[in-house]
Automatic annotation (TrEMBL):
BP term (GO), one: ammonium homeostasis
Ammonium transporter AmtB-like domain ranges (all copies): 29-439
A Gene Ontology term for the protein's cellular component: membrane
One Gene Ontology molecular-function label: ammonium channel activity
Keyword Metal-binding: no
Family statement drawn from the similarity comment of this UniProt entry: Belongs to the ammonia transporter channel (TC 1.A.11.2) family.
InterPro entries per the UniProt record, alphabetical: Ammonium/urea_transptr, NH4_transpt_AmtB-like_dom
Membrane protein topology class: Multi-pass membrane protein
Name listed for the protein in its UniProt record: Ammonium transporter
Stretches that traverse the bilayer: 22-41, 62-83, 121-143, 150-173, 185-206, 227-252, 272-291, 296-314, 320-339, 351-372, 392-419
Localisation: Membrane
Pfam family, one: Ammonium_transp
Keyword DNA repair: no
Length: 456
């Protein structure tokens, strides 16, 4: 199709709109950096005999989530903004499924009267699709080295569909939980608590890995191969997430006034500084715990715990409040970590970081920032969706937290039961001990290296 310059809608492709396009596009870069960081953490903490399999499964889980989100997921999240305009979920799906009218339209050919800022919304599909994939990567941390690949891939499809619907309810400003008052700036609920809820059901069914809690004839102990690589992955995530923060802000006239995705009053500088202090506070407490317990794991868990605890309120906390909340987060993660160790529960990431620090952070937000106006949508002055008609409160924070964990648990319970009765969930203990790279890829290891047979 040739370009008809006379038919170009200039408002859709103005310089100001391009600046916003670049802001949201940077969020996709940040999200991909998070994936890189997660893969590095996995490479630094996974047995060598399982690392190839673990990396491949995480990577494929990411792209399964990415593709399914493009297929239908975004249309579920976007429905909240259709409903406030008296449209329906069906209208949103018609526009925003992979073959939908708005997904496949060129912004300069669509009148702003029909859909203003179309490029931004199209970029947002890519951005949120990355996080649909990240949810699957996080889930894999809880089930890695124990779950059959086919079962995991099927769970990825289910997780993407359910988390997409959950994001409609819990991330934004006019969903059924966000509009009344549930506040979650960075998507802690549907990105972190949801896979942790799934892990609550799946981990007990899969059991512990050989050598994790007691010596196994073939695995005397489970040792992390490279904490240096894991620490590098940690800092890669730290570098990528500031760009994601920009994509969690909406920009309106005059000029580039920023409000959060929850429609709370905020600013770019405050959100960035809160982000940095969340890591710093968590790192300091994590360092203290690490030296006290002589367990290096808390040097990694600490900054992550501070970040996860603060992420739901980067937009509304004052920096000193953010620092205090993040200082407390590693102690919550520590309590959950020790609880799981004493009971032989083989899950040392999602439970302490997400169920522990994430839930703590959402509740603390309801304590520190109770009464903060948010919700609705800018430009709506009255009615159920009036701008900032709702307030942060402890009741809605607890309700939203439980809803996200519960959605994950129910998803895993239903899909997991079906998988157990059909293809099965768990890889045998003997195969786990021998190494999954040999089982899945016929790859042998010589120390830290992969041995390739002739012709490979």
């Amino acid at each position: 199709m040739s370009l008809n310059l006379a038919a170009v809608h200039a408002d859709q492709v103005s310089l100001n709109s391009l600046v916003q396009n670049l802001v949201y596009a940077s969020g996709t870069v940040g999200a991909i950096m998070v994936v890189v960081g997660l893969l590095m953490i996995d490479a630094g903490t996974t047995r060598h005999k399982n690392l190839l399999t673990s990396t491949v499964e995480k990577l494929m889980g990411f792209f399964i989530g990415f593709a399914v989100y493009f297929l239908i997921g975004f249309s579920l999240w976007a429905a909240q903004y259709y409903i406030i305009e008296d449209a329906t979920l069906g209208d949103s799906i018609a526009d925003w499924w992979m073959g939908g009218g708005m997904v496949n339209a060129r912004a300069h050919e669509v009148s702003p009267d029909i859909f203003p800022g179309l490029n931004n919304f199209q970029i947002f599909v890519f951005f949120l699709a990355c996080f649909a994939g990240i949810i699957n990567v996080l889930l894999h941390f809880a089930v890695a080295e124990r779950m059959k690949a086919a079962a995991y891939f099927i769970l990825c499809i289910a997780a993407t569909l359910v988390s997409s619907a959950l994001s409609w309810a819990t991330w934004g400003s006019v969903g059924p939980l966000t509009n009344p008052g549930f506040h979650d700036f960075f998507g802690v609920g549907f990105v972190y608590l949801f896979p942790a809820g799934m892990a609550l059901v799946l981990v007990p069914r899969l059991g512990a890995r050989p050598g994790m809690f007691a010596p196994h004839p073939k695995v005397p102990s489970y040792n992390a191969p490279s904490i240096g690589l894991a620490a590098t992955g940690l800092m890669t995530i730290f570098a990528g997430l500031p760009m994601v923060i920009l994509s969690c802000l909406f920009f309106f006239d005059p000029e580039a006034l920023a409000v959060s995705v929850t429609m709370a009053n905020t600013s770019v500088g405050i959100a960035f500084n809160n982000y940095g202090l969340s890591w710093a506070g968590g790192a300091l407490s994590g360092l203290l715990i690490a030296y006290k317990t002589r367990n290096y794991a808390y040097t990694l868990l600490g900054p992550l715990a501070g970040y996860v605890a603060g992420a739901s309120g980067f937009d509304v906390y004052l920096p000193w409040q953010m620092f205090l909340v993040s200082l407390g987060a590693p102690f919550v993660a520590w309590a959950v970590y020790e609880f799981t160790l004493k009971r032989g529960i083989d899950e040392h990431k999602l439970f302490p970081l997400f169920l522990g620090a994430g839930s703590y952070g959402l509740v603390m937000l309801g304590v520190f920032k109770a009464g903060t106006p948010r919700g609705g949508y800018l430009g709506i002055e009255e009615g159920a969706y009036a701008f900032q008609h709702g307030q942060i409160g402890i009741v809605m924070q607890v309700a939203g937290t439980l809803a996200c964990i519960g959605a994950g648990a129910v998803t895993a319970l239903v899909v997991g039961l079906i998988l157990e009765k059909t293809i099965g969930l768990r890889i045998s203990e003997e195969a786990q001990a021998d190494g999954l790279d040999k089982l899945a890829w016929d790859v042998e290891h010589d120390g830290d290296s992969i041995v390739l047979t002739p012709g490979e």
